[in-house]
Predict the structure.
Amino acid sequence: MLRRVLVGDNERVLLIRKKRFTDILAPGEYWIFTLGRDVELERYNIKELVFASERADYIVREQPELAARYFTVVDTADSQVAVVYLDGKLARVVKPGTRVLFWRGSVAVTFDLIDVRQAPEVPERLLSALARLGRESLVTFAAVEEGKRGLVYIDGRLIRELEAGTYGFWNALAAPRIDVLEVRRQTVEVPGQEILTKDKVTLRVNITAVYEIVNIVTARSGVKDVNEHLYRTLQIAVRQTLGKRTLEEVLAEKADIDETVSAEVRREMEMYGVRVGVIALKDIILPGDIRDILNQVVTAEKQAQANLIRRREETAATRSLLNTAKLMEDNPLLVRLKELETLEKVADKVGTITVVGGLDALLDGAVKLRPKL
């Protein structure tokens, strides 16, 4: 008995005889003899590009010529991915250890095999197209901004350092870890640290430091968190420095203390690729009672300085008067000039002066000393 089979332009038919694959029917008209035979027909629309059948592996393995005629076979090894293009446009990514058969027909299917173990980074030319696929791209994307640097780890190993830009790494075998670190100058603040001085006075200090990471590989491999490590280092250095000084030394030698702290902190952080700039004790906060006592001391010191200055001025004035008296004693003309100066001052305060007996009489009568009673 004959059976007529029509295959359309966008169709392919698998011919199965007695449960075994026999052939693939291309577009056209066929007459198939079915008398006494168990014949099955599996019809496929090739617009659905992927040949999803349990017979795919059998056809590739047992009928390679037939597979090459009707399919584009994408076969990836355990460390490979395949980037598939449809009519030259990137359409999908096939994961490792996978075989996919695409029907040959109206759409041209091409592909590139990439060994993701040997080349874990995605080529730049593919980034934008793969980004459109989302999770199906099998790519982990990373964007590194200006002023930052990135480190890429795969299987716990450092692969490379990233400058500013956009990157992609295949995650088909292992998910890459991308750490982004700030390399611009940053500030760390250590507020309200309570420290006991050598003479048992409790102080509270505020510390600030400016730093930048100059070697991100060393910084990341050496410490878990650069900011946190610098914070602890500043705490320890300031405590050790101020704890060896009395309150008076702390207040008198603040600049020296800053330099001491800076030297210790810089040595520590340089080991981890971090350059520390300015370090400052912004504030030294004293307990209330100690602050009142110091204010009293300062007030007393300033009062004593003011008294000393007054005494010096009075001594200088007395010495000047003594020198003047000695000069007048030895020089009568100087006495007369002083008398005239006095008379001039008196004349400014009266309206009319009548002179009787000449200038000598005037001078003799201008000032009279009243004897003591």
